Amino acid sequence: MLIITFAILLPFLVAILIPSLYKRIPSRKIGWFVLLVPLTLFIILAGFIPTVAEGETYIHTIKWIDSAGINFTTYLDGLSMIFGLLITGVGSLVILYSIYYLSEREALGRFYVYLLMFMGAMLGVIFSDNLMVLYVFWELTSISSFLLIAFWYHRKKSRYGAQKSMLITVSGGVAMLAGFLMLHMLTGSFSVRDIIATIGQYTDESLFVPAMLLVLLGAFTKSAQFPFHIWLPDAMEAPTPVSAYLHSATMVKAGIYLVARFTPVFGGEAIWFYTVSCVGIFTLFWGSFNAVRQTDLKALLAYSTISQLGLIMCLFGLGSAALNEGYSADSVIYTQATFAALFHLINHSTFKGALFMVVGIIDHEVGTRDIRRLGGLMAFMPVTFSIALIGSFSMAGLPPFNGFLSKEMFFDSLLNARNLDIFEMGTWGTLFPVVAWIASVLTFVYSMIIVFQTFLGEHQPNRLDRQAHEAPAGMLVAPSILAVLVVGIFFFPNIVANYVLRPAMQAVYPPFEGAEGLVPHISAWHGFTYTPLLLTIGVVLVGVLLYKFLRYWRGVYTIAPLSWNLDTLYNGILMRAEQGSTFLTRLYMTGYLRDYLAYIFIFFTFIVGGTLFLNGSYSFDLSNDAPIMLNEYIIIFVMMGAAIAIIFAKSRMTAIVLNGVLGYSIAIFFVVFRAPDLALTQIIVETVTTALFLLCFHYLPEWKREKLTRFTKVKNALIAVSVGTVVTILALSVQGNKMFDSISVYFEDAYELAGGKNIVNTILGDFRAFDTMLEVVVLFIAGIGVFTLIKLKARKEEQDVEDQ
Amino acid sequence: MKINDVILETVTKIVVFIILTFGVELFLSGHNNPGGGFIGGLVLSSAFVLLYLVHDIEGVHKGIPFDFKKIAAFGVLLAVGTGVGATLFGADFLTQSASHFNLPIFGETELSTVVLFEAGVALTVVGVVVTIILSISEDV
Hints:
The complex is a heterodimer of chains A (about 800) and B (about 140). With about 800 residues, chain A is mainly alpha-helical. Chain A is built from 33 helices and 2 strands. The longest helix of chain A is centred in the N-terminal third of the chain and has 32 residues, at about 155-185. Chain B is globular and about 55 Å long. At the A-B interface, strand 1, helix 28, helix 32 and helix 33 of A face helix 2, helix 4 and helix 5 of B.
């Protein structure tokens, strides 16, 4: 199905168009134009829902580097479907919201280019079947989110947040790459489907566990799991639409996606089960615990997102246990955790997206997000209040909102997990519901803080920057749609379950295909004795008490081990690393070209000479060499003479001319050895470089004889002699030593294979075209580099970067 | 810098066209004879360099109002684009193909996608070389 490939590429294509469009149309209109992209994609994806619900999957391959097994394969199944719908659906709403949120004075063109780039990268992550392609898109999401967080780059905090998020997520990504490569070594395939199909044979290999842990590292950093969660609160410096999109609905869920996608690969292993579920549940607790103490609404939401991601992660961990024994009537009950995870994933995107937008509205209309300055806004912003109420109560797990359903299923899954008779869950299993219950109480508390401390209580107009009033209608549309969804899903959860969650469950549990009970019937009411309901009632009771007496127990946060945080550690490591590298760089970056040349030559001598020595390949055999003709002797002596003369040259002009002699003599050599292509290239390159030399010649400083110390002279002589020796040995031993078979046989058929009589050219254009292409790219980068270095060095920064 | 040298200027007027023609010839004949995108591009750019050496930059710029950075960028896009183009037809990345056509004036001619790829290479070379030389000479 080419259309999925098209869906990934469309945002990129539109992103390329935007800069030229931005100049021509009024800047406010550009948002409406961009809105078409996710909307179109959402409609296209929605069209797949019925067939995917029946178990259909779509795959399409575009060959890329086929010989290395790296192809651009897109794969649409239930799991990628959910994420695709979230990315495009929430994406549409966020863009709609951003049209009203961002003022026309902002660099809107840049903003939408980044956002579209991000959207395309996210779609690439979820639809790619090939691990390498997935990795490329994965890092692209990190880079585009870096650009988005640093959108207001004149603020110091934005730059800090962007750097932090990028450092953490990219390092996780690199770890993940290593994991992918290990998987490739194990299974010989980069295709996720192939790996899932064959993984059973490899679980005992020694690389299996490292690969698993490395992949998890990627997932945890991206999904802001403890202890990598520290980037998420700082990422809140981004404009609110970005926070709503990246940091609640999509990017942070890439890690969740990865865990879900790899559950069939690694699930059923004790290490996977414990790592995912324990990290998840601790993140759930830690996030909710820290959310309560925040005074900035956006920071509060950031910690709450961390906590909710932990919840989803924990559920995926628990759900993976079902794969341990394969399908049976007993094990199918453990799949309910995964079901709850997927369900909560959708619910979380709806209510958290709405809440972020609400916070953006408050910030936009009142000028502050500080809870201590807010209060009593209900009278001024009734619609915003309603949305906030719906979102928060859903997050707290109260009926009649969708969060209630998934929260109950969460409790239910935790209680089930206690009965697991594998992985020693009998002993440790009880801890899970306890921690989860405490975290839920805290979740309830901070949800109440969002609603009541912002919208109720005393209104303090003198502490606000602007007069409080309701947001314009356009800004309220997007969060209202999400709020309607929050309520809608509560009343019709089984539509979601049957059409969206069922195929996703099958994607996570391929061995359970068509199994009974994989997709339970979601109902809001199970009777009074239903344990999760009792737990929810307990959460509400204790939560209300804690909220009432918040100011009495807030002092808890000042206790030493709790106020200690990982940010200090991160900043410390960063500072040390910078100091260390500065120190190291100062050691060798002297600013003298001659020093750098010396490094290069010494390095060359040791690496090449050393390799020759270690391999014992410095032997050579002269018997098969062609006889040297008289004219060749003449050229060689001319060259030697010119080379020696350069050393004794009195003026710069003489040196340049002698250097030219060397270059042209090499060209003559090529002619003698019947390589007209090379000779031509050499002559032109020589001419152009000499021209360049002469251009600068007039402006170069006086050529002065330097008084060198004896030590420098000896050092230079040593380096020169050793490089010369190594090159000579290398040239001579090329004849005698062949580690690999010659590939020249391949080129003998150039005319039949590539249709060209010029073998050099067919090599450049056909056989080794990849090299040539990359060389062209390198050349281009070098050219741009020279241009910017020369042109921009003197130009002062036009925009003053202020350190706020 | 402006050099006043009548002989050089007169010779250049003729020689530049010879060099340009030679560059195009090298580029086109590349597949079967010595030549190709890289050399062709270099020869073409040496013609431009000669022009810039003899006349002043502003004067040449009036006659050839190209932004050579854009030419280089276009070249890279073209080279990469032909590679991507192959994937659209289900072939591997960078697969090239050629076949013979009977054209009205040229008779039987071989048309090959490599020419497009090589054109990308040539344009990049021209763009980059001229950009570098221009920036250095404008700077000093």
